[in-house]
Amino acid sequence: MRTVTIERLRELRKIASSHENVRISTVDEALQPDLKNFLVGKTFRMLDNDIIIFSSDFRDWLHKLNTSGFDYALQLKDERKETATRY
Q: Distance between CA 53 and CA 84 in Å, rounded?
């Protein structure tokens, strides 16, 4: 099962608030399959062998995570509590 920290999810919100295009490599590998599924049919570009997505698509994906959740099982870890929750 893939694991991502809650703090890392908070960092993604900061990235989204910058309103700049986003390199997919800045997203944790555990979250990239979900993001790539979301991007099917969307416009993006390649730069230095990295996918660059529009900031609006990135914000839409974060909204999808908040409202519909992940496309697969994911374990969220809170580093402050040393506990993990399965979603």
A: 30
% of the chain residues with pLDDT over 90 = 63
Cα 62 to its chain centre, rounded Å, is 7
Contact between 87 and 4 (Cβ < 8 Å): no
Domain membership of residue 80 as a residue range: 2-86
d(CA 55, CA 51): 12
How many folded domains does the chain comprise?
Answer: 1
Evaluate if pTM is beyond 0.85.
Answer: no
Beta-carbon count within 10 A of 31 CB: 19
Rounded Cα distance between 3 and 22, Å, is 22
Structure confidence at residue 25 (pLDDT): 94
